[in-house]
Structure formats: C-alpha cells, structure tokens
Specification:
six-stranded mixed β-sheet, Rossmann fold
Length: about 425
C-alpha cells in the first residue's frame, strides 16, 4: 500500500501523514495490491445479515476495497451508506429519456454523500492519532465532519464562507458541537488559508484533498453496482463542485473493473452550475489546465466552487470513461429540482443539476433515449428549505434576476369557512 502522486508519479508509504505530494504539491492516490477478489461479492452480500457495527456501515461493509484500515475499532459509524436507488418516471419524461434512476445520498445520516467519505477520513485521523480535525465548507462537509468527529471523540473546527452557507447545513454543524468560524471570503480563498495553517496547528484536514475522503466516497459506486446486480449502466450523472465525487467514483469503478467485479466502465457525466463551471470551460476549450472562476455564482451552494482542488483527478476519470461535462443555468436547476420533488423524492439544489444536465445531454443526442441512466442526488431536500419556499412563492432570484417558477405550488390562504374549503377541494379534485 502506498501513495502515488498524480503530478510527478512519486510514491510514498501509506503510513505517512500527508495530503498532497511533498515534492511537487500534486494530488495523491491511495494505491493497493488487492489480490484475489473472486469471493468479495458473496462476502459483501453475507455481511448484510450481520449486526456488527462495521458490517452495518455502507462503507466498511466493502472494506476489502479499503485495505488501509485493518483495525475496525477505529470506525465511528453512524450507519452511513445503505442509500436507495429510486425510479423516477416523471423525471425521465422531463429529461426526454425512457428511464432514469436516482441513487439518493440524501438518505445518509447527515443528509448528504459526504458521510461516505467522512467515516473513512475520520477513521484515518484516529489511525494517525490526530485529535483536532478541520474542514472548509459551503455546508454539507461541515455538517458531516462535525457529526463524525463528535461520534469519534475528536474536536471539529469548521471554516465557512460568511453568508454563503444554507442555514440548514450551518445548523447541523452547530448542533454537532463544531467550533464554527465564519470567514470573509469565498470557499477557495479560505481553503488556501486553512491548508497552509493546518500542519503548524496540528489540524487534520478533512476536505476532499484528503485521499481517504475519496476512498470512502468510492464505495458509493460499489454499493450502486451491487444494487444493480453488477450490471453496469450506460451513464452515471453527478453534480460537480470541488470534483471529489467524480474523482472517487471513477477510481472505484476502475478498481472494480480491474478486479473483475464489473465488465466495463459506465460513462460519467459531471454537471456544473453555469456560474461556477471551471471544469466545463477547461474541457470545452481543450485547455491543458483549469482556470479558476474568481467569483463563482450559483444558488446551488454545494457546488459554488470556482477552484476545485480535485480537477486533475476529475479530468483523468472523465477521460478514462469517455465522459462529458455539461452546465446548467439557475433556471434549469430550479425547474429540475421542482420536477424531482414531483416524483416524491426531493433533493437539495445542487443535486438537481443532474436532471437538468441529463435533459440537455439528451436534447443534444449525447444521451440516447434508451440509455440506462443513473443520476446521483447528493443531498437531502431539507438542506436548503429557503430555496424551496422562494421557488414556490415566485420570489427566487439569481444574480438579481427573478427566476420563473414554472412548477410553483403556492399555499392557498382560506377563511375558516366550510363553503370556502369545499370549493377549494372541489377545484383540487377537478385538476386530478
């Protein structure tokens, strides 16, 4: 087991406490010699019957693909993973394809996909003997880190951009006991500051630059393949912010293919918000490096990131899978989110970028109508309730422009009068 640098190809022992390459500053991969994997599927299936804490985890149930951790007592599981795959016929019709299924990570303990990575990274922190853990976050990471650090008996410190976090997510970090510092500046600026300060302060950074965050997140794909009876879909579509998820998903899928667990790779599609789309512009322009967006703008705060740290890994995985990157406007995200809600599913705004992107890719002919498409919803519907209320009341604005609430569902005030209630109910019944 060792780290390999994406930049200079240097290798380092996996026992070292490093996040990036000490030689060139490049991103690191955790690499393993897995050995024989022919029994893994049956072992993983059998563990679903177990009541052991590690087996109830939807991450460490697949621990053979996470061999960095041999001491299972270091795991502070909250029952993460074990998230459903949901059919959504109305969303498929909206997108113009035959079928779409949602792998909904909002069913995680703190309501987002971050829990899959955080249980792994927190276990690594305990393995290294760290006590103070930190993250910079626009919301979901802070909620997840605070919960898992609390469960593990660690001290969490959260740095959030002031005024740039949904209240539902900030409330979680406070509730779980994290020291929460609201810093002037955007996510990218604060991450640079914290990354430089962390070693001297003895803080273990749990952002997605940490390779063990991505190790946990790759198990989302392992669980998905098991749920699909190991039949690989044509497409896996996900939102793109800091690009840790596509990096993790691609790595996990490549490992499963190389181990003979799946026959081929699905194509990956990353969807970014129009005002925070540096990866999209890089690939569109065939540039060799990513140019950050200095002032990213989107109401989908979970992907409001202009300088995604994991972009080299993301590019690698898109190329390996013949993947694509698309953008969605604020209007497209808002309408897609309302459509997902009409399926009885619901999600946070950033998650809805997936359906908006599928619709655009289907219209362009990139995704065919009969393709097997799975979209990943990254967060729970109640992560940003203010967004929902503004959309349905017709007051949602982006960059000073009021969006059209095409699928608005406004509450209807009525007097406490039987006749008024009867008329309202008759009108409802008449509309089906």
């Amino acid at each position: 087991m060792h780290f390999t640098c994406l930049g200079c190809n240097a290798t380092f022992p996996l026992t070292e406490n490093i996040h990036t390459c000490p030689r060139c500053g490049g991103l690191l991969d955790a690499c393993y010699d897995f050995g024989e994997a022919s029994s893994w599927k049956s072992v993983w299936l059998e563990r679903r019957k177990s009541q052991a804490a590690a087996d109830r985890s939807g991450v460490f149930r697949f621990r053979e693909i996470l061999p960095f951790l041999s001491d299972l007592s270091l795991i502070a599981s909250l029952g993460e993973g074990n998230t459903p795959v949901l059919d959504a016929p109305a969303a498929a019709r909206y997108a113009g394809i035959d079928r779409v299924r949602f792998k909904h990570q909002g069913f995680n303990p703190t309501g987002s996909f971050k829990d899959n990575g955080m249980v792994s990274a927190v276990a690594r922190a305990r393995q290294l003997g760290m006590r103070l853990v930190a993250c910079v976050s626009t919301g979901n990471t802070s909620a997840s880190m605070a919960a898992y650090a609390a469960a593990a008996g660690l001290r969490p410190v959260v740095f959030v951009p002031r005024g740039e976090i949904a209240m539902g997510k900030l409330a979680q970090a406070l509730e779980y006991g994290a020291t929460t510092l609201q810093v002037e500046g955007n996510f990218d600026v604060i991450l640079k500051l914290v990354f430089s300060l962390a070693p001297s302060l003895g803080m273990y950074l749990l952002n997605s630059v940490n390779p063990f965050r991505l190790e946990g997140q790759k198990t989302i794909m392992v669980e998905l393949m098991e749920q699909l009876a190991w039949r690989v879909p044509d497409w896996i579509v996900l939102p793109g912010g800091n690009l840790g998820n596509v990096s993790a998903f691609g790595k996990g899928l490549r490992e499963m293919r190389d181990l003979g667990l799946i026959a081929r790779l699905p194509r990956l599609a990353v969807i970014q918000a129009e005002g925070a789309a540096p990866l999209y512009h890089m690939l569109r322009d065939a540039a060799t490096a990513l140019t950050p967006v200095d002032h990213p703008q989107t109401l989908a705060t979970a992907i409001k990131i202009g300088a995604p740290v994991s972009w080299p890994k993301a590019v690698r995985e898109l190329r390996a899978s013949n993947g694509v990157c698309e953008v969605a406007t604020e209007q497209e995200i808002a309408d897609a989110k309302a459509t997902i809600g009409r399926c009885g599913i619901g999600c946070e705004p950033a998650s809805a970028a997936t359906l908006a992107g599928i619709r655009k890719l289907a219209a362009a002919g990139t995704i065919r109508a009969d393709d097997d498409v799975v979209a990943v919803l990254t967060g729970h519907v109640l992560k940003d309730p203010e967004y929902i209320l503004k959309y349905h009341s017709g007051s949602l604005e982006a960059n000073g422009v009021r969006l059209t609430s095409k699928y608005a569902n406004q509450p209807k005030p009525l007097p406490a009068d039987p006749e008024a209630l009867r008329k309202a109910l008759e009108a409802t019944a008449a509309t089906g």
